[in-house]
Design goal:
18% of the residues lie in helices and 43% in strands. The chain is α+β, with helices and mostly antiparallel strands and 117 residues long. The strands form 2 sheets. Strands 3-4-5-6-7 form a 5-stranded antiparallel sheet. The protein has a two-stranded antiparallel sheet with strand order 1-2. The chain starts with 20 loop residues before the first strand and ends with a helix.
């Protein structure tokens, strides 16, 4: 793939995400701790484990098939058992299929619908 990032429009207004990385501090009656996570790094690890080729750019993953993926956190919630629950989005862009960004499930359905047979 090219080493040049594809131009990507701003995130869709329908995307409730607030950023791709999070650092939060937590405390309970026994101790305090911090959690750090990066949704884009997590997405890259999942794609890599599944053998999907991509190039990581600033804030996005560019796939060979023309899709650009951008992950963001929506919320981070501590749980009583000491773990953390997160909600995130993956916005998908494609220069022809969804140039303005489309929420993931819709974009994926539109993209898959173009596959032959």
């Amino acid at each position: 793939m090219s080493s040049r990032a594809r131009p990507v429009p701003p995130f869709s207004r329908a995307n409730p995400g607030v950023g791709s990385s999070v650092r939060s501090a937590f405390a309970n009656g026994q101790h305090s701790w911090e959690e750090e996570a990066d949704a884009l790094v997590s997405l890259a690890k999942v794609l890599q484990a599944r053998g999907v080729a991509f190039e990581q750019q600033e804030g996005q993953l560019d796939l060979a098939n023309g899709l650009t993926l951008r992950a963001q956190f929506v919320s981070v919630q501590p749980r009583e058992n000491g773990t953390v629950s997160t909600t995130s989005t993956i916005e998908i862009n494609h220069p022809e299929l969804c140039p303005q960004g489309t929420p993931g499930a819709v974009a994926l359905r539109q993209y898959v619908a173009t596959w032959p047979g």
